[in-house]
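INTERNAL AUDIT FORM
Audit reference: QA-55
Scope: verify that the stored structure record matches its stored sequence.
Auditor: D.O.
Record contents follow.
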Amino acid sequence: MQMASDSSEEAQYARLADTEYLVRRSMTKGYQLFSILTPPIYAGFSLFRRGRGHLTVNRLLSATFYGGAAGVVGGGAVEYVRSSNSTTDTLRARRIRAAFDTGSLRADDHATIGALLFAVLTPALFWKRGAAVYLVGGGAGLGTATGYFTHVIRSASGDVPPKPVIPQISPSS
């Protein structure tokens, strides 16, 4: 009886690990998506609704900061609901596919590099134009969008990441 209990417990831990990985990945993808969408949407809304005087660096960076936070929360929530309604085998297959998706991993790398660069450069360039938290957080959001677009441009120009060989895992292992 102890053997069946250990196997069930291991399967439960494996399911939790797969769910955690996929939720973290979706939080990252949500941050990237909202960091791309928020600045142009906010700028367009601000220009057309309120006029040019209401579009400032601080407000744009603030909107980008809060948009990225909303993307993290939204992406994580959507993936958690999706994962909790999926079978263990489906979760494992999705996690393996995500772990070996070199295009997605390269996009994440470019976005992270852009976020770090812009989190440092934005406060250096606009120090007097906004609050420090919005300069760093909003700059990171703009850098994430820039890094992601760098990945898209590199892929479109022919520098495609290699296709990985995904190992086949039997259900008994």
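Auditor finding: record pair retrieved intact. The longest helix spans residues 2-50.
Action required: none
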